[in-house]
């Protein structure tokens, strides 16, 4: 499309030269390196003199450090990258008067919104890829184990899922920057959305489950009722993109996990049958387990950007 490359180059220059990008990148990189260093030192002490287990390199990303693992850190604070990159993408141009000047240039109108979104995705990709490479290099130095081919592919898939996950929040923040003309208003709206999906959805899931399938001391010992309670709670929690991302990455990065459910009740015969499958899942099997979550996460990302695209295309911007 005409002008989209110019918009991308202009937006990338703005992102990489802004102080907020430098501060955000430095903060995320610092926390990631500190967490990886502490996890790596712990693994080095635990595995000292022992045979290295399979997929030990992936433990750098799944093992819990002083507060959280690297995967948990990206799941919780990763959306802030997308929100910060997009909360003023349109209304800043509108308030400064440059949006109408852009629209008056010989470029298509959709090149503006497409260029801003793609530049944000490119920025997110560069940030995540650079942090992943630095963390991997630090992990190689600390534990001295070279990742296998399957581990490398799992990390590539994890990177792609993380890009779509953060791009989802980028699309939400761009949507609010289109709907609200005030930069402060769009910033507060995006922050409120992040807080809602991060904290209140999980709390609401517990409330809904307790209302629909209440548990007490007498009913807590009923396996069927307990499973119904957890099923309702899980269905409500899947409204949050963070839950979809956590379930997807947990299976991809940790091959020993075989289900996204936190509790599975099995009888004696089922336990005997499952004992034959104690080995870690193959990569194709892990993808098969989380394919519904991946499709949902990717679909929501495109839907969010599609709504932003439709709203922006219908707005009158030349007279503003």
Domain unit count: 1
Q: Give a quick account of the main beta sheet: strands, pairing sense, barrel closure.
A: none
Structure class: mainly alpha
Report the helical percentage: over 70%
Task: Report the uncertain regions.
Answer: 263-277
Q: How many E strands?
A: 0
Distance between the termini: 24 Å
Oligomer: single chain
Number of helices: 13
Please state roughly what percent of the residues sit in beta strands, choosing from under 5%, 5-15%, 15-25%, 25-35%, 35-45% or over 45%. under 5%
Mean pLDDT figure: 80
Shape descriptor: globular
- From the alpha carbons, calculate the radius of gyration and give it in angstroms: 22 Å
Q: Please provide the ordered H/E string of secondary-structure elements.
A: HHHHHHHHHHHHH
Task: Outline the fold blueprint.
Blueprint: H1 4-17, H2 19-46, H3 59-62, H4 70-86, H5 91-96, H6 98-104, H7 109-143, H8 149-179, H9 183-212, H10 223-237, H11 241-253, H12 268-274, H13 283-314
Helix pairs in contact: 1-7, 2-4, 2-7, 4-7, 4-8, 4-9, 4-11, 7-8, 7-13, 8-9, 8-11, 8-13, 9-10, 11-13
